[in-house]
Amino acid sequence: LLETRTVYSVNSEAAAVLAKLADAPRIKSLGLKFSSGWHETADRKRGYFDTSWQHPDSWTDAILQGPHLGVSTPMIKQPNPTMKHNQDWSEVDLEAIKINFVPATAYIPNRSVASYEHDYGIWQLEGEEALVKSQYRVAWRIMAATTGFRTVYPSLIPPGSVHIHGVASAGPMDEEKNLSAAASASSFLVDYYFRALGIANILPSSFSSLPLVSDGPLLLHIVRKYLELNCLTAAYAPLWEKVVKEPWAFGTPLRNARDRFHAQNEIDAMVALSLGVTLDELLMIYRTQFPVMRRYDREDLYDTNGRKVPKDVLKLEKKLKDGQQLSEADRTWTHPQSGVEYVFAYPFAPLDREADLAAAYEKYAAMMEQQ
């Protein structure tokens, strides 16, 4: 006990929030199974996969890395064909992806290894063996960027996919109860709990220790919002239809940047309500614990259609004198990943996260009172 790592809290109000989170149920209570994935060096030497850029034809040939994963976004980026370094990646255009889109990868499976799927991992589920890669799983980046935009990046990966050991995953994510772990971990409130521990890597034991919304009137709403953000392609249709009990269509998930911003704020507000954290406390955590997120929220501008204005357009905007506006040609931009041309429409403005969180909190607080 004398050598136990202590948590860091910036003020007494933040410490009070930590006390509330400490009383919450834990993801460990769900009894999830975990996977460490392929070892990026050792398993490549063993011949299970090799380095090669490609767009896999299906998820069964996809080997995911940390940058693929965002918060509630399983395909936020993909490596560029040049593969010059670990930052040579491009954001995926979620509005333009096809119904069966699979992100580009930097590794290719060696299908000549007959035991490839079995060697990746086996879970005991309900007394029977099941291939790890045949399950829906929540995956996250192992490295904890405790001073970055976010620390925990949980998103759902579909059956067939695998990942390297810079990513960890847990499952099966095939029912509301287990999905509550992924959805809870996506909130910045739970992110703060981990950030306060000051741990460098989010190992399965660390993920298991995170606070959990395990029940309550908002649980299904939290899970549904999380699925709306994650279920971006037809690979997620069976999961959506099993849990939400509605047919999945291309328009089911949220693709627009402003809509996705709002949905994640709703999750953040509902998790706070479910764990007994007040609106003032939630906003205080945002202001004091996530300075990079706050800076991005001030700098990022969105057009009237809810699309985030790219930096190339904003650079031209900054050169204008007061009262001037960019021409339509200067507001036209081709997405480097999809090749789709967008014209960004005035006005350009930031999104107010605090106001959005407050509106969501009040909405769901009223819903809880009615129930």
How is this structure best described in words?
The chain has helices at 12-22, 42-45, 116-120, 176-185, 188-197, 204-208, 219-230, 237-243, 257-274, 279-289, 291-299, 311-318, 353-370, and strands spanning 33-35, 49-54, 63-64, 77-79, 89-91, 105-109, 122-125, 128-131, 137-141, 155-157, 162-163, 167-171, 332-334, 341-343. The chain is of the alpha+beta class. Strand 7 (122-125) and strand 8 (128-131) form a beta hairpin. Helix 7 (219-230) runs antiparallel to helix 9 (257-274) and helix 9 crosses helix 13 (353-370).
Outline the fold blueprint.
Blueprint: H1 12-22, E1 33-35, H2 42-45, E2 49-54, E3 63-64, E4 77-79, E5 89-91, E6 105-109, H3 116-120, E7 122-125, E8 128-131, E9 137-141, E10 155-157, E11 162-163, E12 167-171, H4 176-185, H5 188-197, H6 204-208, H7 219-230, H8 237-243, H9 257-274, H10 279-289, H11 291-299, H12 311-318, E13 332-334, E14 341-343, H13 353-370
